[in-house]
Amino acid sequence: MLGFNNWGDFIVSAAIIIEMISVAVFFIGIVFLFIESKKKLGLKLIIGSVIAFVIGFSACTANFTLGPMH
């Protein structure tokens, strides 16, 4: 499946892509806040991107293991 060894690799790769897109949308939302006619849309974009970033970040951290560290 596209060079992924297991589902964990696929989930982490998808989560990284989601995080990059959400950061880009966040900055677009900040720009829209300064445009008077797009202020409401900018706020919606910021809220949605923060939610997407939290989901993507939690998908990445769910695959961390503490195995040989302790």
Order of helices and strands: HH
Q: What is the mean predicted local confidence, pLDDT?
A: 84
Which secondary-structure class do the elements indicate?
mainly alpha
Helical content (DSSP H or I, runs of 4+): over 70%
Query: Taking Cα atoms only, what radius of gyration do you get, to the nearest Å?
Result: 16 Å
In percent terms, what proportion of residues is strand? under 5%
Instruction: Give the uncertain stretches in residue-range form.
Output: none
How can the largest sheet be summarized?
none
**Please, how many helices?**
2
Our measurement of the CA-to-CA distance between the termini, rounded to an integer number of angstroms, reads 33 Å
General form: elongated
Q: Kindly state the number of beta strands.
A: 0
What does this structure look like?
With 70 residues, the chain is mostly helical. It is 71% helix and 0% strand. It has 2 helices and no strands. The chain starts with 6 loop residues before the first helix and ends in a 9-residue tail after the last helix. The relative contact order is 0.18. The mean pLDDT is 84.
Précis, in short:
The protein is an all-alpha fold and 70 residues long.
Q: What is the strand and helix layout of this fold?
A:
Blueprint lengths: L6 H27 L5 H23 L9
Key phrases:
70 residues, mainly alpha, elongated
